From TrEMBL:
Signal peptide region: 1-46
Protein name as it appears in the record: PDZ domain-containing protein
Species assigned in the record: Colobus angolensis palliatus (Peters' Angolan colobus)
GO annotation, cellular component aspect: extracellular region
Gene Ontology biological-process entries: proteolysis
Superkingdom in the source lineage: Eukaryota
Domain PDZ: 348-389
Length: 416
């Protein structure tokens, strides 16, 4: 009938009006115990005696605290009777005032750092059977967007006397796997850097200052014990400086961080972080349950500085003759402001200046070129090109110039 069709239409309209006219009220989609609807010009009669009389609708938007609403519509008005049915809060809506969300600071730290933690496996390629034989596994964390990873030296090296080619495999949190190479290693301090070549920029962790650590501070350890990736344990700093000699390491000159966070086989090389999400150590040694040790972040910083100084010395010996900048969104915006035709790129190396009579100039590289690949590998950071200059020759550079993709072969020169 016309009356029934009108009521059906108005019921839907009333639900919409209730949800839109009161946006600040707590509206939740629940099953209503009752919603009674009538249009005044058609007659409403007396208040319903039962919870859901004939014509009542049982599904809509429940408005907490409402029992009766009259909303004007044209020449008449809609009367809506809501009987609220108490149901648990929606699981999809966070109750920010609850202790679960106010005090779960450990979960906040883990959510922040987990994407930059990796699982590392060392294999031996068997020369006869052609299969990979596992030698060791552990964890690590990403230090640069271009794929530089920090870990323990004992995770990426083996004293196994078997012949064959050793191979490093790194798995990211998202499941992507890469073959890695060792960049620098110090077996005495048990620190190593390895390098992968990702196709896009990676999440990174920042180093904190271990000298600021205090006994009793909360810490979080994350890694891949027994190949169970991104396993989290928590604890406190038991001692900020425990001498290596106290642990029976006679030749050690290092003071370790002692923690009661549980560290097992496979956690080695993973980060120990503070509540700010900063790395304050590398998990490296377990004595017994509740007594574990980490290499302090200040020692990691020292290792990285020495490695960088060595690279700079080597870089001065080999050169291709360009000044360069890593492509970033801010650099692209800056360059497009002066040149609207600047190509659409998201990664690569911008050639700011080519030195006269240099290998790059003789090879055809020009100011303003964008080097996107070296020897077939995508470039994400300028350090990757520097590394290639030190270790490879010639260099096959893929260059974006305007809308053209060009290839140039450049041979680095050695400066005596």
């Amino acid at each position: 009938s016309i009356k029934k069709g009108t009521l059906e239409l108005l019921s839907l309209l009333s639900v919409f009006l209730l949800s839109s006219l009161r946006p600040s009220s707590p509206l939740h989609p629940f099953l209503l115990k009752c919603l009674t609807l009538c249009w005044l010009p058609l007659g409403c009669g007396s208040e319903p005696d039962s919870l859901c009389p004939t014509g009542a609708w049982g599904v809509g938007w429940a408005h907490a605290g409402f029992s009766l609403e009259t909303l004007p519509v044209g020449a008449g008005s809609i009367r809506v009777s809501l009987t609220h049915l108490a149901l648990p809060a929606s699981t999809g809506l966070r109750q920010l005032s609850s202790p679960r969300y106010k005090f779960n600071f450990i979960a906040d730290v883990v959510e922040k750092i987990a994407p930059a933690v990796v699982h590392i496996e060392l294999f031996l390629r068997h020369p006869l059977f052609g299969r990979n034989v596992p030698l060791s596994s552990g964890s690590g964390f990403i230090m640069s967007e271009a794929g530089l990873i920090i870990t323990n030296a004992h995770v990426v090296s083996s004293n196994n006397a078997a012949s064959g080619r050793q191979q490093l495999k790194v798995q990211l949190q998202n499941g992507d796997s890469y073959e890695a190479t060792i960049k620098d290693i110090d077996k005495k301090s048990d620190i190593a850097t390895i390098k992968i070549h990702p196709k896009k920029k990676l999440p990174v962790l920042l180093l904190g200052h271990s000298a600021d650590l205090r006994p009793g501070e909360f810490v979080v350890a994350i890694g891949s014990p027994f190949a169970l990736q991104n396993t989290v344990t928590t604890g406190i700093v038991s001692t900020a400086q425990r001498e290596g000699r106290e642990l029976g390491l006679r030749d050690s000159d290092m003071d370790y961080i002692q923690t009661d966070a549980i560290i097992n086989y496979g956690n080695s090389g993973g980060p120990l972080v503070n509540l700010d999400g900063e790395v304050i150590g590398i998990n490296t040694l377990k004595v017994t349950a509740g007594i574990s040790f980490a290499i302090p972040s200040d020692r990691i910083t020292q290792f990285l500085t020495e490695f960088q100084d060595k690279q700079i010395k080597d870089w001065k010996k080999r050169f291709i003759g360009i000044r360069m900048r890593t492509i970033t969104p801010s650099l692209v915006d800056e360059l497009k402001a002066s040149n609207p035709d600047f190509p659409e790129v998201s990664s690569g190396i911008y050639v700011q200046e080519v030195a006269p009579n240099s290998p790059s100039q003789r090879g055809g590289i020009q100011d303003g070129d964008i080097i996107v690949k070296v020897n077939g590998r995508p470039l994400v950071d300028s350090s990757e090109l520097q590394e290639a200059v030190l270790t490879e020759s010639p260099l096959l550079l893929e260059v974006r110039r305007g809308n053209d993709d060009l290839l140039f072969s450049i041979a680095p020169e050695v400066v005596m």
